[in-house]
Amino acid sequence: MCIRLFAQPAEPHVGATQVGLRTYVPLVSGALRPWNVRRYPFRVEAVSPTGRVHRIEVRHSRANPYAWVGSFRFPKMGTWTIRVTNFAPYSKGCGEILRVRVSKA
Questions:
Q1: Got the DSSP string for 13-80?
Q2: Number of other CB atoms surrounding residue 65 within 10 Å
Q3: How remote is the C-alpha of 81 from its chain's centroid?
Q4: d(CA 11, CA 72)
């Protein structure tokens, strides 16, 4: 299984943002095919520019069977790191870490 993290909007302002991940299965060709993972205890965190860790609760999306979504309120500007702590490896496309630049509202 592989995951790709996302934030909507991709360049958020201070305040509420949708954060989530999409699940895939890697193919022999190297391509990724969306994969419906119904039950997995993804542990998603946002790490502030100062290193403070915030838990983000994500739930399986009803609108998109390949997505898990949650909301997070960025309390301050800076570059934040979104990560899934109970899923490895952190290789490109299969467990990536997302860095999000948060600006003023």
A1: BSEEEEEEEEEEEE-TTS-EEE---------EEEE-TT--EEEE--EE-SS-TTEEEEEEEE-S-EEE
A2: 13
A3: 9
A4: 14
The tally of CA atoms less than 13 A away on the side-chain side of residue 23 is 21
- Looking at the domain that runs over 2-102, which CATH code has it been given? 2.60.40.10
> Which pTM value belongs to this model?
0.88
Return the bridge partners of 88, or none. Answer: none
Using one digit for the tens of pLDDT, what is the confidence trace for 10-58?
999 999 999 999 999 888 888 889 999 988 899 999 999 999 999 999 9
Q: 18 and 57 in contact (C-beta within 8 Å)?
A: no
Give the pLDDT band (50/70/90) at residue 78: very high
Using CA atoms, how far apart are residues 64 and 4, in angstroms rounded to an integer?
A: 14
End-to-end CA distance of the chain: 36
